[in-house]
Amino acid sequence: GVDQLETYFGAYLPQFFYAMLAPLTLFVYVCTINVTSAVILLICVPLIPVSIAAVQTWAKKLLSKYWDQYTALGDTFLENLQGLTTLKIYQADEYKNSQMNEESEKFRKITMKVLTMQLNSISIMDFVAYGGAALGLIVSVLQFRSGHIDMAGCLLIILLSADFFIPMRQLGSFFHIAMNGMAASDKIFHFLDMKESEKGNQEFPDNHNISFRNVQFAYEAQRPILKNINVECPMGSFTAIVGESGCGKSTFAGILTKKNENFGGSITIGGVRLSDISEKSLMENVTYISHQSYMFKGTIRDNLRMSDPDAADDKMWEVLRSVKLDGYIKEQGGLDMKLNEQASNLSGGQRQRLALARALMRDNSVYIFDEATSNIDVESEDDIMAEVHNLARTKTVILISHRLANVVKADNIYVFSDGYVAECGKHEALLEKNGIYASLWNTQCEMENI
User: Fold this and answer.
1) What is the second-level CATH architecture of the domain 210-449?
2) Which of 184, 291, 410, 435 could be 374's S-S partner, Cβ–Cβ 3.0 to 4.6 Å?
3) Which distant-in-sequence residues (6+ apart) come within 8 Å of 180 by Cβ?
């Protein structure tokens, strides 16, 4: 649909202006031969744009539905393709196949409606165009029989009758393609017209104490995720956020990195409101590492230099040693080792170590680890956590983890529960409270000792 915008601007609009001027020019010329014939032909010409306008109202609604269904079918197909392995494992491919067939049938029906609409509108425009030309022929013959024009004038009007309607007819032929582009453009322009949140212009402060005061956030108005939370992350501290799945831990990180906006309450960094800090400056000082850090197809060097384009090889080997990945990389060809898309030729643990190495290249002020050790082997988890603890000695580190053994050494631990901060304190103090944290700790200890 977007490609057809070129037809709209490159063919439809120029033809539109040509279709307006050509009949007027011919009208002036035919008037020199016979005014009656010229007036009748000119009166018939607007019937084509009138029919186009009548069809356009109907076509715009229909094509909007067409592109909605087209997008839905594409989304379903892509989702099924990406999740094909999972569907096979759970033997749910037959169900998804039937679902795909339903989407395909809906698309087939709406496509047939569009084709029917196009055929009907073309038929109407052809009827008007050929009918007008035929009327011009009849009038010119009658004018000749009445002696108002000679034979040469009669033949000239007959030949020009078709030319009165050809520009409008050509306009109609571009109309349906143009309407496809216009329907698609409505969605594009709607997206472009969406108001962006106000961008800050202040620099990231040197004194970067992070403070959340009565912060609320909801993806949907009826379902709040964070409810008046208060969190303090002093500069140079090691702060941990823990809690059961769905309690708002990752949402907290998303707000701090400006991925989640429109929150309530107050968030400041070094006394400066988060919204007043420019996104560029924030990204230059805050590094976010999740359990799904993306690795690009290319080499180890290419991926590491995303953090520091001018980094020397020595610096890259230094961070690889710190995450204990240097030995394996050397065996595989060094920094020029080829990586597949999403580093699929590395294990889960190796990918996370490489993601941490890339983060360490930045040497930023604040590091946020969001379940960075999730779903990896124990050895890799231990190596990554050792580096996190080492980093916490000189940097501000916020660790979000479901595994409490990783947060024992944190300066302060915040326990999230149902969107609230239920408890906070050091590991030993929280165990003494015998509350939510102690319950989670005991449960995890029992499970890991089995």
Assistant:
1) 3-Layer(aba) Sandwich (3.40)
2) 291
3) 1, 4, 63
